[in-house]
Fold these 4 entries.
Entry 1:
Amino acid sequence: MDMRSGIIDVHVHLRGDGLPNKFWRAVDRYGVEKVMVSSLGRVWRYIPTVDEFREANADVARLIKEQSDRVIGYVYVNPCYEEEALDEVKKGFQVYGCKGLKLWVSCICTDPRVEPLVEWVTENNGFILLHSWQKAKGNLPGESTPADVATLAKRYPNTVFIMAHIGGDWERGIKAVRNCPNVLIDTCGSITSAGAIERAVKYLGVRRVVYGSDACGNDFGPNIGKIYGACLPEEDERKIFKENIEEVLAGRWLK
């Protein structure tokens, strides 16, 4: 794949209230055309307050205005604050111009408090980037596993979900969502997970795999290298790096 053709990174986080200059230099160096950005707050907390997630989304909104040709935004909320979270999701889409919802670890995704958010996003042609991990020593109290993602996806078959990190434990992650055709996986996570991309393409199909870096907490180079290292046909690389997420953003992926 010619990197000059562009890469869309589906999984980027602000650092503090923005993105540093060295981030944008790396974007240019690696041929990243657009970044899809959320903020987990200026100081990351597992269970943010209403004021904290509102501030985080205002920071993303400011970045969207400053870098409108290179930034696509996610709105981020804590579903435990039911009314405030739904209001913020609406604001994120209707005022800030966000295209998706980011859910992290404040509330397991199968919790009933998540349902109104999923329903509104679905009705408004959005999609959900959902943190998921399977930890050997046990997850955080509000942290979703791949099995949780599968449960939610089957409950909402007309919603597009992107399961982040291939579920952390990628072998379990792939198995958990294999029969959930409305779930894509993003490739960020461990940079030493040999075989993960190949296995995801084999069992999920290339159309359900999208590239993510988890920057600024991770780097572009090793994460892009994972895709090239899988030795896929160039057509498949193009789908993972850009074309699949373009279909999601255009509302065509499930059609």
Note: The chain has a mean pLDDT of 94.
Entry 2:
Amino acid sequence: MTRDWSSLMMTEAQREALLKSWQARTEQALQHYLPEETTTPARLHQAMRYAVLNGGKRIRPLLSYASAYALGVEAEKIDAAACAVELIHAYSLVHDDLPAMDDDDLRRGKPTCHKVFGDAEAILAGDALQSLAFHLLAHSLPDTIPAAQQLQMVNELAVASGSRGMAGGQSIDLNAVGKALNIAELENMHIHKTGALIRASVKLGALCSPAIDNAVLKKLDHFAKCIGLAFQIRDDILDVEGDTKTLGKPQGSDIARNKPTYPALLGLDDAHRMADELYQDALDSLSAFGDSADPLKALSRYIVQREY
């Protein structure tokens, strides 16, 4: 069981150790839940494992663990929910990188899934990862979570990844290339494309608490909405300020595709300012949680300051 620091003011070293322990849990659980490479059909399972275990910051699982931690839920009860969100994220990256979408050659500094396994196998790998995510929610959640909350978790992830969430946001993005969007339209696109899954990450972690209160869930959702937009703004900023080696993907790819971004619409200075304002709003929504929200605050800070 994870050491209970919820009643103490964490040091930076303690926060770092806790986040690293959750990253390690995520890696171990993903290794466990993914089919072995030698299981038939072997090439499909190899592609799935390549797509998921090919590095990554695991921000979304960390948000699930941190959200549950803020409510006093043990880490071992979060594994399936955290991995389900990460599998959806991984599937979306595989499909986003395809020639029909963003046509990217690099992901996390390595060849994209379709470059290694071919377009068709990559499509199937993405499909299978999406199915596996919902399998985990249907079969691997702990019995301590009430059935109604388990069903709510399935619904939250389905909405967040479908046409009213991530997939819908990607469709808006594809149709916005070369067009001039205003700030409200850009925000709407990213609330769906990036923000929906981040909000689901936080909600699924919170819903692992057997007695979650709707008012508490609403505060955590507001936190997640703010930090989800800040995440995308930081991504847009890094596309301008970052470099390919650090980013693990081509720098300036959004500019090259003439995609609408926050720096393009607001300018770099105002994009930085907007991210900072969202970060502060996110922190304010956590004020009622006390020190138990320290990991969420640390993740928020990382999101708005990260270099890749």
Note: The first strand starts at residue 106 and ends at 107.
Entry 3:
Amino acid sequence: MLSTLLTVAFLHWLVLVTPGANVLLVSQLAASGHRMSACFAGLGVTVVAVTWALLAILGVNAIFASLPKLRFALQVAGGIYLCYVAVRLWRAGASGKEGQSEPLVPWVAFRLGFLTNILNPKSALFFGSIFATALPHEPSASLLAAVTALVFVNALLWHTFLAMAFSHRRIQVTYIRNRRLLNRVAGALVGAFGLRLLVVTANEMRSR
């Protein structure tokens, strides 16, 4: 069991530390001075990571394989949502008001993190591929529970670390000083993630 857990943990951490929309969301909220908002957004991302892991265990990959239009619909919705977030970040950079905004209430921050992650079904495919590679043919219930708990702990630790690290005073000062530029950069990156998801989905649909 230990070797399986170490393999899953290693592969999961490789994905967690790769910059993406989730990382950008939590770090941007923290750097703008909203540490608690960043923590709750990270919790929303974590809950979705566990949800996708559970769905992978239950065989959601088979569902997506038999109903590709369902996965395409989720990916299109995710791409559109990320583009919407990108536009809001870009406009905040143009107005320069983001650094003066009020922190998000816990539920809104949680929902933001949840939606950012749930509208990317490729996370489910990722967990499905990890589990297919690392888990034995007939894993025990205790192993599946341990793997799910591992995913939760890894995601929660990483996103909490981001919230704490980017809410450091020096980082906040740098962010406030350059918030217009940084918000526009963040908006451009989030928009790139969204557009990439839409382009990949369109290519997959044409290839079928």
Note: The radius of gyration is 18 Å.
Entry 4:
Amino acid sequence: MSGGPLARQDTEPGQLIGLEHLPASEFLESLVATVERPGARTRLVHQGLQADATAHEARAVERDLIELLAWALRRLRASANTTVASPAPVQALVLLPRNSILAHVLRRAVPIAALGIPVACSAPPAMRSELGRVIDLVARSLALDGTLKLSSTDSPTSYARMPRSSMVVFTGRRSVLQRLAVGSGVEVIAATGRCSVLVGADASAVTDVLHELCALQRLGSCTRPRAGFAIDGGWTTIRALGSLEGRSISSALPGLHPSVVLSVSSEALPKGPEFVDGYRVLACGPHGESDTSVGLGRDPDFGWPGDYLI
């Protein structure tokens, strides 16, 4: 990737679909009403989450609704300064994983549907019923009945009948992505990150956060930590923790292929870069909590720009 491992990338919306395509007014009104009333926001999250969801997941999805509104407002603001017209996909197929269905619908499907683009969502067959329930709830709650639907097929291997100028947004394993068959003229964008990576100035603090997040997040989550690094103020590795001992963060990232790099905040580590080797860096507190998920899931290999950057 040009510009070196600490190259700055764009963290404003408009990277996937041109800024002249704006969120629908009905969607905005419904989203504002949901976000501004804590009871309505909590109710949507409670109804949309799976029965075994944790309090940690519920808090994260409530934040997603707020992030969604912030994205819409940032996109409206940015659109006032653009004169470049670009076509939008005629439709989109969003392929979702089996974990965290509600969060992935809000992050990967709703922003596209909010721009007036027909979106069909698919998931592994075992999750079809759950996905249909979530789609119905979100579409009804956010005035997206006309653009957000359940896909008529759940085959992970062939979407060759999709029309030209359509888009596939895939979330999941690289091995499954490589089996997708789509027709010519169909753009495929994918978020295939496998984990989170923690960095910080204090090795013991990084280790503590790593253990805490592992306890909070379920197996199979694409943000469950897999590695940690102690770094200095120039983001040079001092020490790699666990099985990666002796490796530098830059040499390890391509193999780890994280959804996000979490930087454990401390006075000893000044605010770092927003991207390392193309992966999004988010600051987190002493318990692994971050106040934003903008850019999470960025995939330098398969083109997903990161959540809420559409």
Note: Residues 189 and 303 are 5 Å apart (CA to CA).
